[in-house]
Amino acid sequence: MRSQVLAALIACTLAACAPSAPEASAPPAAAPAPAKPAATAAPAAPAKEVPEGDCGDQSKLPAEQRVANTARWTTASEQNNFGFDVFRGDAEAGPFTKLTAESILGAGTSDETHKYEYRDDSIDPCKDYWYYIEGISTSGAHERFSPVFHAPAKVRPRGAAPAAAAPAGPAAPTPPAVDAQR
Predict the structure, then answer these.
(1) Helix or strand or coil: residue 15?
(2) Number of helices (H) and strands (E), helices first, in the chain?
(3) One-character DSSP codes across 23-82
(4) Where are the beta strands (DSSP E) in 99-137?
(5) Can you give the pLDDT at residue 45?
(6) What pTM does this model have?
(7) Contact, 173 vs 150, CB < 8 A?
């Protein structure tokens, strides 16, 4: 699956809980080409205190009230790109589980910029998760599209002491964006 993505831009920021609409259905299929995420360094931001909240299964809540991680990525161009699948793990080394029941459709072959996202509202808001995105070519080949990226817990259990803030260090390359959404 050596289709070329001339440039894949992967926006990379982690945001705190923010209002969000439920996930919309994915666009029609296109083939993803192996992409090379643009590695950019951002200045280290001061650690934010994690708010208290409810932990555990959110399936009984309406979708618009669930805390979610939303992975967002952008391609500058695509070649023979059928689509993308999103995987999640409880640890950086995995194991990972495919989250997308149906692939997020890509743009086929295109020189235009395309933006994609996947909203994961099946999380326990008190747990950290790791994700990666896999591209699928029109020939059916699967290839890792992004590095593994981290989505920290969105809330801490009620009554738990705040975690000590980690010291600010040098900036690291930024992975695909994962926004916490409520």
Answers:
(1) strand
(2) 0, 13
(3) PPPPPPP-PPPP--BPP-B-PPPPPPPPPEE--S--TTS-GGGS-EEEEEEEES-EEEEE
(4) 104-110, 114-120, 129-137
(5) 53
(6) 0.68
(7) no
Query: How much is the pLDDT for 14?
Result: 32
The alpha carbon of residue 174 and the mean position of all alpha carbons in its chain are separated, in whole angstroms, by 12
Distance of CA 26 to the CA centre of its chain: 15
- 42, two tokens: 């951002």
Residue 89: HSE in the Cβ half-sphere, 13 Å Cα cutoff? 14
Position 164 scores a pLDDT of 58
Q: What is the distance between the alpha carbons of residues 105 and 168, in angstroms, rounded to a whole number?
A: 38
Q: Give the tens place of pLDDT for each residue, 89-123.
A: 999 999 999 999 999 999 999 999 999 999 999 99
Kindly state the tokens that stand for 34.
């192996």
User: What is residue 51's predicted lDDT score, i.e. its pLDDT?
Assistant: 80
Q: Which domains does the chain show, CATH number per domain? A: 8-41+54-165 (2.60.40)
Within the chain, which residues score under 70 in pLDDT?
1-48, 163-182
| Cis status, amide bond into 167, omega within 30 of 0 | no
